[in-house]
Design goal:
Shape of chain A: globular
Strand order of the largest sheet of chain A: 1-2
Number of strands of chain B: 0
Pfam families (chain A): Proton_antipo_M
Strand content of chain B: under 5%
Distance between the termini of chain A: 28 Å
Low-confidence stretches of chain A: 367-373, 378-397, 536-540
Structural class of chain B: mainly alpha
Keywords (chain A): Cell membrane, Membrane, Transmembrane, Transmembrane helix
Protein name (chain A): Multisubunit potassium/proton antiporter PhaD subunit
Structural class of chain A: mainly alpha
Number of strands of chain A: 2
Order of helices and strands of chain A: HHEEHHHHHHHHHHHHHHHHHHH
Distance between the termini of chain B: 47 Å
Mean pLDDT of chain A: 82
Subcellular location (chain A): Cell membrane; Membrane
Membrane topology (chain A): Multi-pass membrane protein
Radius of gyration of chain B: 20 Å
Oligomer: heterodimer
């Protein structure tokens, strides 16, 4: 067991960086970009170190629960940050998505409004905090941090569409937060604790009469997270909001649905895992049905979408619905293998949707809409004079389209789940154990499988249609794309390729993560073993 | 006391939900405020209802916890109030921007066609 200060770093680094950037005027973009990129790179290093640390050694059974006691209170009382394999994985994914997004934004989007980089860092702080915390109420606080930052980011660039989408987005999230609070307080009322590890221990011992209240609380809590995860029918806000957001914002939002999925996975495996006696498997039916409905809804949405933005937002729905469905299966006793596959799929699809969101704007630039608008806002703000010229790269005419086309093709392969890219491996790793799992109606497994393949097919049709319109049916005018805009996309695709080439290693990590999730005792015992820095009554 | 508190929570929540579903932004924000009041009262009630009992124990010696109010829900309510106040203020700003940009206070940014 380990306790070191590195665990709090993923929260502190973006917090300090974001606060520091508030001191600078918005015209000092170079400094802001430098701080922002530095912060995200530092986050990546810390996340990688934590990930390696959470693998533990042979003595700890390959699972090392790291912890950080804020305020140094003994475990069930104070707030603890906990890092295990799953948290470390999500931290790493956040950092991997954040670096390309920041780079992309620094090519121009960050001029469109105020304090883009600060808001972005606060969003990262909220995300990392939500992944690290081991306390339900603290989770609420970090959720509000990330939501508050996301409200600002969604409105970045302003405009009628964004304000309208932002209004709906904020109203829905405020209402969901209230449900979150009701759920948390119900759980507190029954169990008398909000520490997740403590809850995992208390739930199996609860009296029969208390279970309905606990389940009500957990269900309300679940609704709050499922709104974020975009499960059908709580997902109608999502495509519009994601489509309205500026490109880098939408790319970062690709991970926001995964926060909801993460919390569902974490809390339900801890509280309602196989060890939870009477409550075991609570909510699995809803997750399976909801996940499948979400995939179906996303599939239809992809086919119905006219623009690439709305289509990609619907792919976010498909990805989130798939993972939710598999979480439901795993919760119902499907075994850790499929969950490991689902985690792999989650990483792959998050990176791929992120890359696609970044591609949208360069691909549609020739239509003149956004490029013209960019120039216009820059004029309106009168900010351009003091700055140096953009680092434009005169890519040759066929070069631009080739690079864009190949990147787009890679995203199509990854999202539609076609070989050779990682989407295919993720689907196989999920579905093969699902069909082999005993205890399920094989019809259900096959239904899920066919739904996923239909979704992949719809993705293929939708994206190919857009691709043909963009790359083959163009008339002459070729978009001018900066190297700084295409490099992040290429970086994300390189990550997808790495994920494919090193599939065995990553899958092994995911499988071990899924196995650890199936044994909540590892998490609970790990947290309870946390020693305080000062023992006993050393505090005055 | 229980019946008064539960009635208060119920009426606040019901009015809040009704207002939340109305088409005008002002109604929505008032609805959200009422809902958050009811949720705050609800959190408070989850620490069990007590009358005139302090939440902070004096130092030293064994104390019967039944004589004290549960301090945790009070701390949670305090946090929840601060956060919902801040987010509501943010929402108000967006509402005003929406009113300014679209010229209407309808939540969809345009009047519904009857």
């Amino acid at each position: 067991m380990s306790a070191h200060h590195l665990i709090v770093a993923p929260i502190l680094i973006p917090f300090v960086a974001g606060a520091l950037m508030l001191l600078y005027d918005d015209r000092q973009r170079k400094a802001k970009v430098a701080i922002s990129v530095g912060s995200t790179v530092a986050l990546l290093l810390v996340a990688a170190e934590l990930l390696v640390g959470s693998k533990g050694n042979a003595a700890s059974g390959g699972n090392d629960i790291g912890f950080y006691l804020l305020g140094d209170w003994a475990v069930p009382f104070g707030i603890a940050l906990v890092i295990d394999r799953l948290s470390a994985l999500m931290l790493l994914l956040t950092a991997l998505l954040a670096i390309p997004t920041v780079l992309y934004a620094s090519a121009g989007w960050h001029r469109q409004g105020k304090h883009f980089h600060s808001l972005f860092q606060f969003l990262l702080m909220g995300l990392n905090g939500a992944f690290l915390t081991g306390d339900l109420f603290n989770l609420f606080v970090f959720f509000e941090v990330l939501l508050a930052a996301s409200y600002g980011l969604l409105l970045h660039g302003s405009g009628q569409l964004r304000i309208r989408a932002g209004l709906h987005y904020i109203a829905i999230n405020l209402a969901a937060s209230l449900l979150f609070l009701i759920g948390v307080s119900l759980i507190y009322g029954v169990t008398g604790t909000l520490n997740m590890a403590h809850l995992a221990r208390i739930v199996p011992t609860l009296a029969e009469a208390d279970l309905p209240i606990l389940h009500t609380g957990a269900a309300l809590l679940g609704i709050a997270f499922l709104v974020k995860a975009g499960i059908w029918p709580l997902s109608f806000w999502l495509p519009t909001a994601y489509m309205a957001g500026a490109a880098p914002v939408a790319a970062m939002f690709a991970i926001m649905t995964k926060v909801g999925v993460y919390v569902i996975l974490r809390v339900s495996m801890l509280l309602f895992g196989p060890a939870a006696a009477a409550s075991a498997g609570f909510g699995s039916g809803v997750l399976i049905a909801g996940g499948m409905a979400t995939v179906a809804f996303g599939l239809l949405g992809v086919l119905a979408s006219q623009g690439l933005g709305r289509m990609t937002a619907n792919m976010v729905l498909i990805s989130s619905g798939t993972v939710l469905g598999v979480v439901g299966f795993a919760l119902a006793g499907g075994g850790p293998e499929m969950l490991g596959g689902a985690l792999y799929y989650l990483v792959s699809s998050t990176l791929a949707t992120g890359a696609l969101f970044l591609l949208i704007e360069p691909m549609s630039r020739e239509e003149g809409g956004i490029a013209a608008m960019l120039a216009l806002t820059a004029d309106a703000y009168g900010l351009d004079e003091a700055e140096e010229d953009e680092p434009e790269v005169g890519l040759a005419i066929p070069g631009t389209l080739t690079v864009l086309g190949l990147s787009f093709g890679a995203c199509v392969l990854a999202l539609a789940g076609l070989p050779p890219l990682s989407g295919f491996i993720g689907k196989i790793a999920m579905l093969a154990p699902l069909l082999a799992a005993p205890g399920f109606d094989p019809l259900l497994g096959w239904a899920f499988l066919s739904l996923l393949f239909l979704a992949g097919f719809a993705t293929l049709i939708g994206l190919v249609r857009i691709g043909i319109q963009t790359f083959w049916a163009t008339d002459g005018s070729v978009p001018k794309v900066l190297a700084l805009e295409i490099a992040p996309v290429l970086g994300l695709i390189a990550l997808l390729v790495t994920l494919t080439v090193r599939a065995e290693d990553t899958l092994r990590y995911m499988q071990a993560t899924a196995r650890a999730l199936h044994e909540p005792a590892i998490y609970a015992d790990g947290v309870f073993a946390a020693p305080r820095v000062t023992e006993g009554s050393a505090a005055p | 006391m229980e019946i008064v508190l539960s009635l208060a929570i119920g009426i606040l929540a019901a009015s809040g939900i009704w207002l939340l579903l109305r088409p005008r932004t002002f109604q929505v924000i008032v609805g959200l405020c009422l809902l958050s009041y009811s949720v705050n009262l609800f959190i408070f009630a989850m620490g069990r209802l007590t009358l005139a009992q302090p939440p902070i124990m004096p130092k030293g010696g064994f104390i019967d916890p039944a004589l004290y109010a549960d301090p945790l829900p009070q701390a949670l309510v305090l946090t929840a109030i601060v956060i919902s106040f801040a987010t509501t203020a943010l929402f108000l700003v967006v509402m005003m921007a929406s009113r300014g940009v679209t010229g209407t206070d309808h939540v969809d940014g345009k009047e519904s066609e009857e």
